[in-house]
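Changelog note: in this version the structure field was regenerated for every chain. One regenerated record is shown below for reference.
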Amino acid sequence: MVTLRGTVITGDGHEHDHVRIEGTKLTFAPAPPGRSHEVITGWVLPGLVDAHCHIGFSAHGVERQEATRQQARETTATGVLLTRDAGMPVDTRFLDNDPYAPRIIRAGQHIARPKRYTRELPLNLDDPDDLPQALASQALAGDGWVKVVGDWIDRDAGEQADLAPLWTPTQLHDGFAAARANGARVMVHTFAHATIDPLLDAGVDCIEHGCGMSSEQMQRAAAEAVPVTPTLIQVQNFPDIAAQAEGKYPVYAAHMRRLFDNRFAQVRAMHEAGVQLLVGSDAGGGIPHGSFHDEIDLLEEAGIPDEVIVGAASYHARRYLGAAGISEGAPADVVVYPEDPRANARVLRHPSAVYKNGQRLR
């Protein structure tokens, strides 16, 4: 039995001076008299949340189970105890009973068009009118989420190639309706401005990246309670992407550089418009697993307030995703810090204790 004493931050406007870990659950009940128990003091948060993560994928492509398990453990070592996988071509449910792996909210497989996304990750549709059927199928394969690639470079345009939508408004409307009919919310990868309005019209639930959103689109997303996962770590790669594309696709290269140059102002504008932000590392592919705190550093550099970052990385993200936080009888997934991270979000990088399902991780 462990008592966590100090400041217990639930994110619902209330704080507690203690919470106990009893087996695998949390309780606010006092410790039974006569029982020995460990006491740890600090600031206690619900386990951190990486809302855009690809455990099971790396720069080498789809990983085998042992490498996938290692990625999962690199994730929990950062205090991240819940991830939303944002689309994967493999089933990672073998991790569900691993005490050192985070809880994973799965989204089936990405849906894209041929040659319009990263190799190996997506299910490519030759006929875009098949989007509803594909989303219905992936909704049944996930945990209440599906993932759509909204835009990508259209290389068929030659030197004028640029980011361009993959779907018509009608295809998006019908596809999202099919996902909802099968119990899933829809997240969409988008870099381009032109993609956003049709996504909002179709009822998108979460925008991934959102680099091209205008102030009007941000205000609309805020009014419609559509969060954005900025993934600034991924945007940091845009100059390299532009350099590789410069000779063959100069329009696209210039576009990617503009998005990079505007990245911090863009995220600040989202916050100022009232958009809910989620923290996502986009780990997998070119971004190493365990990079979650690099994303937090970039959000701080962008000028997002520390308290907003902490909520986006923990209790507000959990509430949005429908996952338990710190409450009576909730799973004992908590992180303890030596200082208040709401005063300095970089403290999140240095937990003094991490508990997953009541077990202390090392």
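Spot check on this record: The radius of gyration is 21 Å. The chain has two domains: 2-45+326-361, 48-321.
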